Amino acid sequence: MPERAHGHRVAAVPGNQRVRVEINGRIVADSSRPVLVYETGHKVRYYLPPQDVDLTLFEPTETHTTCPFKGTASYWSYVGGGRTHPDVVWSYQEPLPGVEAIKDHLSFYDTVATVAVDGEPPAGPEV
Fold first, then answer.
1. Which of 42, 86, 91, 101 has CB 3.0 to 4.6 Å from 12, enough for a Cys bridge?
2. Average pLDDT of the chain?
3. What CATH number labels 5-117?
4. DSSP structure class, residue 48
C-alpha cells in the first residue's frame, strides 16, 4: 500500500461480502464482488463493478472532483421512480497507482443510498 503525503494512506482490497444498495426503496445494486477502499480518516467504502449496478437508473453529470490519493472522480445522478438525487454515485475511470482495482467501479453516498453489507468488512491494512 503506497504511503502518501503526510502519512495519508489508501488501499483498495478485493472483497467477497454481499453488498446491496437501495435508493427510495428500490434496489439499485447487488454485488458479491466489491472492492473495499480503506483510507486514512475515512470509513471503509465499497466500490461495485458496473455490471452489478442498474445503470438505467442513473445519468452522468458534469460534476468531477479530484482526490490527490485516488484521482479524478466522475458522478451520476439517480433518476429512478420520478425522483432525482444529484451526484449520488461516483467512479474513477483512471485511478492513481495503488488503487487501480477501483477502476470503473461505482460507490454510493450513504447519505442518500442505503448500503447494506452482509457481514463485517475484513480487517483492512493499517491506514
1. 101
2. 90
3. 2.170.150.40
4. B
